[in-house]
Amino acid sequence: MTDITIRNVRTVLTMDDGGTEMSDCDIRIADGMIAEVGPSLIPAGEIVEATGCLVTPGLVNTHHHLYQSLTRAVPGGQDALLFGWLKALYPIWARFGPEEMRVSALTGLAELALSGCTLTSDHLYLFPNGSRLDDTIEAAQEIGMRFHPTRGAMSIGESAGGLPPDSLVEREADILADCILVIDAHHDATEGAMVRVGVAPCSPFSVSRELMRDAALLARDKGVMLHTHLAENDEDVAYSQEKFGCRPGQYAEDLGWTGDDVWHAHCVKLDGAEIDLFARSKTGVAHCPCSNCRLGSGIAPVRAMRDAGVKVGLGVDGSASNDAGNLVAEARQAMLLQRVAHGADKMSAREALRIATRGGAEVLGRHDCGQIAVGKRADIAIWDLAGIESAGSWDPAALLLAGPTRVKHLFVEGRQVVRDGQVTTIDLARVISTQNRLAAALAS
Questions:
Q1: Can you tell me the distance from the alpha carbon of 334 to that of 220, in angstroms, rounded to the nearest whole number?
Q2: For residue 403, what are the β-bridge partners?
Q3: Cβ count within 10 A of residue 229
Q4: All residues at 6 or more sequence positions from 424 whose CB lies less than 8 Å from its CB, including other chains
Q5: Angle value at C-alpha 117, between 114 and 123, nearest 5 degrees
Q6: Neighbours of 153 (CB within 10 A)
Q7: Confidence grade of residue 173 (pLDDT, cut at 50, 70, 90)
Q8: Closest by alpha carbon to 428, among 149, 194, 143?
Q9: Hey, how many other C-beta atoms are within 10 angstroms of the C-beta on 275?
């Protein structure tokens, strides 16, 4: 792999333990890792000029449903709460196949890359018409994104008291067997891995207690992480109390769904006891502020979580409930919501950006990522401060206050995935054309 020297950086936000910020320096990449950071380095390999630019670690997305990029702004689901929104979309998703899964993943991953994201998870919990998790993994490999897909599942359909239609649920034995297959085929536990696989039953209202318990046992036997939705809104909490006789946090703990190998999406309605439980057990949270606003779910208690020591990362959630996949815009929304809820001094632009980088890496168990530091993976976002968004800004590091929201250059494992604001690894115009054709076919 060719060495790369990023030269004349105006400001580097390292996100290291001390929160170091550096000015007028260079970064050298070698073998997919950060080899040197400092002023006036001896250039080696390809030279990338970063005069006037801000450099951050690549952003990390801890919760997504990539397939949903084919169903943005669908009538009937635009103004519904979570359960009503799902019921409007399930019949459309049931018509997907492998091509829809792959193309929607390419679209969603490219959108993330252009917003500075280098590592993303994905929660795929339905597999209609021959679709496989492999479809999305192949898309991530084509784009060059570091990927943490999760093998989701739904097993309780409407006829058994669940929310999804029966056509989208699977036999629990088949779910567990396929989890083993995809983990064995794709999971890489080594440092610097480009693909790691997780186990992710969709939610407490679409799978049984038995599947939740068995999935946790399987994941720990295989040494992979666990993910699901939890406490997303008031309906979610009410369902847990009615069906299980307890709040979502107690349900999770009883079934083995707490620990440093677990992260839950949303957690908008966690109470104080549940926040303390997550802090003690080192359970992670994927905070999805834009989707939570779009679905009217509420403002997650991120300030209380952070103050208690809970690991928090950001997630754009699905593009049918966001309806975008811009991670730097998500970080800004996270900052603004905590200020609305608690005051303007309760979350700084720097803290929100740290959640979007180092925070997300920690939630996903990726201590090799999320920092600009020697020995870490070369996942690097370069932001051009010469545009209109930053004109007049006094603080080059205040990215979430003054922009930009689109990255200039992006490196993943030392490979340039975005150059001068354009994705380099795929024909994006062709992908968009195919995406629009597929969406039109679904709509008709």
A1: 32
A2: none
A3: 26
A4: 416, 417, 418
A5: 115
A6: 27
A7: very high
A8: 143
A9: 21
Query: Helices marked H in 364-427 — which ranges?
Result: 399-402
Domains and their CATH numbers in the chain: 4-57+371-423 (2.30.40.10), 59-363 (3.20.20.140)
Tokens describing residue 420:
């001068």
Q: Which of 185, 162, 146, 150 is nearest to 263 (CA)?
A: 150
Q: How do beta strands 33-38 and 262-266 pair?
A: unpaired
| CA 219 from centre of chain | 20
- Residue 347, both tokens: 């979350």
Cβ neighbour number for residue 88 with a 10 Å cutoff: 17
Q: Which amino acid is at 162?
A: G
**Assigned token pair, 231:** 């406490």
Indicate whether 129 pLDDT > 90: yes
- What does the radius of gyration of the chain's CA atoms come to, in whole angstroms? 21
Predicted TM-score of the model (pTM): 0.97
Residues 209-249 pLDDT 10s: 999 999 999 999 999 999 999 999 999 999 999 999 999 99
pLDDT at 2: 81
pLDDT (tens digit per residue) in 242-288: 999 999 999 999 999 999 999 999 999 999 999 999 999 999 999 99
Rounded Cα–Cα distance for residues 190 and 196 (Å):
9
Taking CA atoms, 133 is separated from 98, 136, 198, in Å, by: 9, 6, 11
Phi, psi of 272 (to 5 degrees): -60, -40
Assess whether pLDDT exceeds 90 at residue 140: yes
**1, pLDDT greater than 80:** no
